[in-house]
Design goal:
The protein is mostly helical. The chain folds into two domains: 91 residues, Tetratricopeptide repeat domain (Serine Threonine Protein Phosphatase 5, Tetratricopeptide repeat, Alpha Horseshoe); 63 residues, Alpha Horseshoe (Serine Threonine Protein Phosphatase 5, Tetratricopeptide repeat). The protein has nine helices and no strands. The longest helix has 27 residues. The radius of gyration is 20 Å and the shape is elongated.
Amino acid sequence: MVTIKEHLEQAKQLKQSSKIEEALEKYQDILQLNPNFVPALNQLAEIYKSQEKFDRAITYYQHITKLRPKNGQFHVKLARAMMAQKNLQGAMAHYQKAIALQPKQPVWVYVGWGDALNQNGQIEEAIAAYQKAIELNPTAIPALSKLAELYRNQKEYDANCYRTSQSQ
């Protein structure tokens, strides 16, 4: 009988050899032996995400976050997959969960959270998220450029409001 460890090694080799469909089958074989085996669940989610099959990826990430609710890394992965599907509410919730669990997240996590907030129209909160990213790394170009864009848009909005009020 083949062990989970052997299946996992075979699946990894298949994936590295770009035999993705065979790797998917092997990871599924692992889940037949242990439906809560996080490394296999994660690999399935990653493969489906790379194939832009976000529904499937999200299903696996959700399963993982139920098994490992205190692991911020999986909440971030779930948030990113949800962002790809424009599920802003879900993405924001999982970014917040990840940050609450581990406030010292990489810069890109705060940028992603800021993007979700911005797309949801929560401008002040998005500014705070981008500022946190910049606080962590003052040379974080994505955070700097997104923050500058928000400030520019806010300034244009304020100028338009002023012109409208002056013309009345």
